[in-house]
Design a protein that fits this description.
Number of helices: 18
Strand content: 25-35%
Radius of gyration: 29 Å
Number of strands: 38
Largest sheet: 7 strands, antiparallel
Helix content: 10-25%
């Protein structure tokens, strides 16, 4: 690998010699220079096993990077080879008994060829690259892997070629390979399309991977014919699998691969339009976004719709492009040189999507005190009608000409999330950042890796710190957050350690009259208890930049059977989640209030809250009600995505569960015994909620709007 392309904590070479894995990793010097020591460990996923992997410095490759040698002799670690287990490789830094762990990166899709055969157990041990591009090892049953290296779409057919790695059992006597085929399945019916494949000699694989004789004939090629008589009502999505037929002891058997991966990087979508007996079809091949699986999509083609959609895409691209942005920025800078309007305040919550959170609490406090300010709310263009229906609230469409004129001359900006990076802050403007949660997950400069679309780790951190440098005031809910905010945001101006203004409502409105009023306004049953489910978003599950996927892992059928007579479930997804959940059949049990004005009202009416790693539980703790943490993916979230600031599993103010069945057990306990605060609950409240007395808005206003 070129010196210019080295990245921190990344595998750059791997070999298997005499049942020992020898690895080389690149480590940035600055990454380890302030730590007492560093070391590597293999941790059993979902278990307690942990093995230290010896390492040594091989040498320097530049002023910035070291190369480390790692050796994993399998004969010294028999635990690795027992049972079906995944082992994840971690880099650990230690200072004064504080250990910070991060997963080792890997961009190599060929790692599975370095497999170790375990004939007595009929298993194989091999390294692999995870969906998040991390290095792991797997002790697994004999299995088949297939990779496409080239695919060409002519419209009438898809021609592809690639290679497989034969399972190690075929090295043994008594196995005869009969044929290999490609199998396609789609999303609409049970139809299976079988494509015969032609075997291709691959001496390059034979030479590269330890001279394994099977690899010399591991290539294949084939063709998928597009059926022109196909009548498509909805878009068809085809998945590819490889099936190998072999004979053992006179019996024919099949072994099927996982989905076929497309190995090349930066592959553009190949799109063709063909005529059929029923009109025109659009045929596309492309890799899936995360796992790079080969995907075939077929849909009806309508010229008018395509032109309109393409025009929309180009208009949005132009509107968001650098040219328009530059004009807007220059105009903003020019207007920003005019004198500020000293009584003008612009409020914004979650990029103009809501009238909520601490900006709302500050706004309503100032309004209740009849303070002499001209106050506007910045409204996202898709939410303008919502703001227009708010009684007595003045709003302006975000990025409109009027917004430009108001923002450039406002004395105060009050927001709870970052403003656009290109937006310059005029010299006379005071920027109050309230932020929107007590940190559990690592933030900004403290994040080890960034998995969000449209950015990388270094760029994300630099942009975040640049934006934070514009803030004049930053609200903190407690001393714990103050310490983290200063470091993670690089914040050096005025910190207001006041409690969160948004939580004043929870303290001041926690009564039966207010609770009934909210339930009625939300059209919820008043004769049932409420379970609020408020999960966070996952950095690495997204449709596009700013639009995140969410898979509802709760078994609603099971929950309704157990609690449908006494409870309802209220869903509140994170504002970045773009999912529209299908709740057909559960309309009287599950209510999706993700678009509700303000989550604080949902806290107030809930008897139990279920969450995961969302900071909502810091706020809900003020009500001293039960919480359950549904953390089905905690190993991946903690170790691969964000990491936590404290021992969440040991200190969480409620039980942690991974399945719907475990969740049901905890709710039944609450029904039977009631809510009895634990030591964790008390310690948590004293550490994070001690400032929440219903007067945080007052403290913030007195500090910022002194006159």
């Amino acid at each position: 690998m070129s010196k210019d392309r080295l990245r921190n904590n990344e595998l750059i070479n791997l070999n298997l010699n005499d049942n020992s894995y020898n690895m080389e990793l690149s480590i940035r010097k600055s990454y380890i220079e302030d730590w007492d020591k560093y070391f590597f460990t293999l941790k059993q996923r979902g278990g307690v096993g942990e093995i230290e992997v010896p390492s040594a410095v091989k040498g320097e490759v530049s002023e910035e990077f070291l190369i480390l040698n790692l050796t994993l002799p399998l004969e010294k670690h028999p635990d690795l080879l027992i049972g079906k287990k995944i082992w994840d490789l971690y880099f650990n830094r230690e200072k004064e008994e504080d250990i910070l762990q991060s997963r080792v990166r890997s961009e190599n899709d060929y790692l599975r060829f370095y497999s170790l055969i375990l004939p007595e157990q009929e298993k194989m041990f091999y390294p692999f690259t995870t969906k998040n591009r991390r290095l792991s090892f797997y002790c697994n049953d004999y299995c088949l892997f297939a990779n496409v290296e080239e695919a060409i779409n002519t419209g009438n057919e898809i021609a592809f070629s690639g290679h497989l790695n034969y399972p190690p059992m075929f090295n043994e006597e008594g196995y005869e390979i009969k044929k290999i085929q490609m199998v396609l399945t789609n999303n609409l019916d049970e139809e299976i399309n079988v494509i015969p494949l032609e075997e291709v000699n691959r001496p390059d694989l034979y030479e590269k991977y330890s001279g394994n004789e099977l690899l010399s004939k591991a290539g294949f090629k084939g063709t998928v014919k597009i059926k022109k008589e196909t009548n498509i009502e909805r878009k068809l999505f085809y998945k590819f699998f490889l099936v190998l037929t072999y004979e053992k002891d006179g019996q024919e058997k099949n072994i099927r691969s996982n989905r076929v991966r497309w190995l090349k990087n930066n592959i553009e979508v190949q799109k063709k339009v063909i005529r059929t007996t029923n009109g025109k079809l659009k045929v596309q091949i492309k890799p899936t976004k995360k796992s790079k699986f080969l995907s075939l999509q077929i849909s009806n083609y309508k010229f008018k719709e395509e032109i309109i959609n393409e025009a929309k895409r180009k208009w949005v691209k132009f509107r968001r492009g650098k040219f328009v942005q530059k004009i807007y920025k220059n105009a903003f800078q020019l207007l920003g040189k005019l004198p500020v309007k000293k009584n003008l305040i612009i409020f914004e919550s979650f990029h103009g999507k809501q009238y909520s959170d601490s900006p709302r609490a500050i706004y309503e406090y100032m309004k209740s005190k009849n303070m002499d300010y001209d106050m506007y709310w910045s409204a996202d263009r898709r939410h303008v009608s919502y703001f227009n229906n708010l009684d007595g609230v003045k709003s302006v469409r975000r990025f409109s000409i009027k917004w430009l004129l108001l923002m450039a001359r406002a004395k105060y900006w009050v927001t709870n999330a970052r403003l656009p990076l290109w937006l310059p802050k005029p010299k006379g403007t005071i920027y109050l950042q309230t932020w929107h949660g007590t940190p559990l997950k690592r933030l900004a400069a403290d994040m080890e890796e960034v998995h969000m679309p449209g950015t990388n780790t270094e760029k994300y951190k630099a942009n975040f710190l640049f934006e934070a440098s514009k803030w004049d005031y930053l609200v903190s809910p407690n001393a714990y957050s103050t310490k983290i905010f200063k470091r993670a945001f690089g914040f050096q101006k005025t910190m207001i350690e006041s409690g969160y203004p948004r939580n004043d409502f929870l303290i001041n409105s926690n009564n039966e009259v207010a609770i009934r009023k909210v339930k009625e306004s939300c059209q919820l049953p008043t004769d049932k208890k409420i379970i609020l489910y408020a999960p966070t978003w996952r950095d690495n599950q997204f449709y596009s930049k700013g639009k995140y996927k969410f898979d509802l892992q709760l078994d609603l059928k099971l929950l309704k059977e157990e609690f449908g007579n006494d409870y309802i479930i209220v869903l509140r997804l994170h504002y970045l989640v773009a999912e529209n959940l299908d709740l057909t059949g559960y309309e009287d049990f599950v209510f999706d209030l993700s678009m509700h004005d303000d989550i604080r009202e949902l806290y107030l009416i809930s008897d139990i809250m279920i969450t995961d790693y969302s900071s909502v539980f810091f706020d809900y703790a003020n009500l001293k009600r039960p919480m359950i943490f549904f953390v089905y993916d905690i190993d991946d979230y903690r170790d691969n995505l964000r990491g936590f600031y404290f021992d969440f599993e040991a200190k969480a103010p409620g039980p942690l569960v991974k399945t719907t069945e475990e969740l049901i057990v905890e709710v039944k306990k609450l029904n039977e015994f009631g809510f009895v605060p634990s030591k964790n609950n008390e310690e948590f409240y004293n550490k994070f909620c001690y400032l929440e007395d219903g007067r945080a808005s007052e403290r913030v206003v007195k500090e910022v709007f002194k006159s």
